[in-house]
Amino acid sequence: MWSDSESRIDYLNYSEVSEMIAEILSDDSMLPTSIGVYGCWGG
Q1: Would you give the end-to-end CA distance of the chain in angstroms?
Q2: How far is the C-alpha of 2 from the C-alpha of 10, rounded, in Å?
């Protein structure tokens, strides 16, 4: 388990997902676009 402190290392690979989202939103041929975020919250 990782500590709860800021890191410059993207252990969960969020940068790949954010780059794909940015590409979709900047491509006029993909608009209009809806993006949903799904996942468990809490415990």
Answers
A1: 16
A2: 12
